[in-house]
Amino acid sequence: MKDYIPKKVVKNLYIYRYLFHPLVVTKIYIRNNLPQIALLSALSALLQSSGNYIPVIGLFMSAFSTFPVMIASLISKRGIIYTYIISTLLLLILQPSEFFTFPFTTGLLGVSFGLGLILLKKRAWIISVSSITLIFGIMILLLLFKFPILGPIQITSFFDYAILLGCSFIYCWIFFDLGNILLRKIVNHLVTS
C-alpha cells in the first residue's frame, strides 16, 4: 500500500522546493572573456539609455538592463563587477542623465542577482537580498543625492517605506524569475551548439 501524503503537504513541499532548493548555475569557461564582458556592458548601457531614445517602449526596455549584468555571472565573479563598471562608464558617455540611476538601481540589482546566483544559490535568499540592495540604492538616490527617482512621489512616513519595500520585493521576484529563465535558455543553447 502506498503512503498517503495529503495534498496540502505536497503543495507546501512544492513551495518549499521552489523557494529553498539550490539553484544550479552552469559556468561557461572562456579563455579570453573580455569581448563577452564588453558586449554585455554595451548591451546593458544601450538598454538603460533606451528610455530616453525610444519614447514609450524604451521605458519598459530600460528595466531589462539588469539581465546583461546577471548573464555575466555565467562567466565569473569578476565578470559581473567589470560589466557593472564598464556599463556605468559607458552611460556617463552615452546618457549622463542615466548615470545616476543605473549604478544604484538596475545595475546594482544585476550585481546582486549575479553574485546571489554564485554565492547564495537559493531563490528566497537571492530575492530578499536583491530587494534590500535595491531599496538601499533607491534610498541613496532619494536621501543622499536628492535625485527624484520616483518622480513626484514623496516618501514621508514608515508606511511609504514599507510599500516601497514590498514593491521592490515583487519587482525583484519577477525579474529574477525572468532572468533565471533567460539564463537557462542561454546555457541550453550554448551546450547544444
Helix/sheet category: mainly alpha
What radius of gyration results from the CA coordinates? 19 Å
Average pLDDT figure: 86
Helix share bin: over 70%
Low-confidence stretches: none
CATH topology title: Arp2/3 complex 21 kDa subunit ARPC3
Verbal overview:
With 193 residues, the chain is mainly α. It has a single domain, classed as Arp2/3 complex 21 kDa subunit ARPC3 (Orthogonal Bundle). It contains nine helices and no strands. Helix 5 (77-94) runs antiparallel to helix 7 (106-119), helix 7 (106-119) packs antiparallel against helix 8 and helix 8 packs across helix 9 (158-192). The mean pLDDT is 86.
Topology readout:
Blueprint: H1 7-20, H2 34-53, H3 57-61, H4 66-71, H5 77-94, H6 101-104, H7 106-119, H8 123-144, H9 158-192
